[in-house]
Amino acid sequence: MEYRKPEDDEDQPLQKVEEPDLTGYYNASDYLQWTFEGFVELIKGKIVKMSSPASAHQVVSRQLLKVMIAHFDRQPCQLFHAPYDVYFVHEWEDFKQARNIVQPDICIICDRNKIKRLGCVGAPDLVVEILSPSSIRKDVGDKFSLYEQYGVKEYWIVNPVEGTITLNVLEDGAYRTLLPKAKGEILHSVLFPDLAVDLETVFDDIQFED
Asked: 35, 114, 163, 186: least buried by Cβ within 10 Å?
């Protein structure tokens, strides 16, 4: 995995850290110096390794991206997809102190000031996470709380196995979870009312032999 240096450290040599201590606590300053292979996230300062996505994950991601890229094309809000770093910090904090750095499957960012060379600094407006067996606990637990705490306005949890998408909408600082939408239904974003997703297309043909 190739990590970048902070913007204001262009002339400083990159410290090579081949394998950090998984029991340690880190922030963005550490994260930006790592040069080991593979993708990781930081959750509350702890390293969380990411596994390669399965075929169903890729199919669903591709179908969602088709719809969302078409919708947000030539609009002020920008779409980004993994691997793309999101640094969660409060407005008064230096992003290099961030202890929560994630790579959502898809995110929509409307505030152009949050889009930096290194990624997004601050909360995206909408985040999509596609569940896999290795990520369920993280996506419906740790990340749910993280996105709620830092103000992600709408969080989609996509379950390829069940063929559902569950919307979580931020209201008064807490998520209101809507009833899941399933294959055969049309999902409408609350934050972006004109964004409609046909789940028949999203979950079509995702059965694979072992």
From this structure: 186
Distance in angstroms (rounded) separating the CA atoms of residues 32 and 2: 9
CA-atom Rg of the chain in angstroms: 17
What are the distances in angstroms from CA 86 to CA 44, 81, 108?
A: 14, 11, 11
pLDDT tens-digit series, residues 119-174: 999 999 999 999 987 767 777 889 999 999 999 999 999 999 899 999 999 999 99
Torsions phi, psi for 86 (to 5 deg): -120, 120
Beta-carbon-side half-sphere exposure of residue 81 (alpha carbons within 13 Å): 11
Q: With a threshold of 0.90, does the pTM exceed it? A: no
SS3 88: coil
Domains annotated for the chain, with CATH where assigned, are 55-202 (3.90.1570.10)
**At which residue do the structure tokens 């409408």 appear?**
188
CB-based contacts of 107, cutoff 8 Å, min separation 6: 79, 80, 81, 84, 86, 120, 124, 126, 127, 128
Q: Please answer whether residues 22 and 30 qualify as being in contact, where contact means their C-beta atoms are separated by less than 8 angstroms.
A: no
Phi, psi dihedral angles at 167 (to 5 degrees): -95, 135
Kindly report, residue by residue over 67-85, the tens digit of the pLDDT: 999 999 989 999 999 999 9
Kindly state the tokens that stand for 13. 């040599």
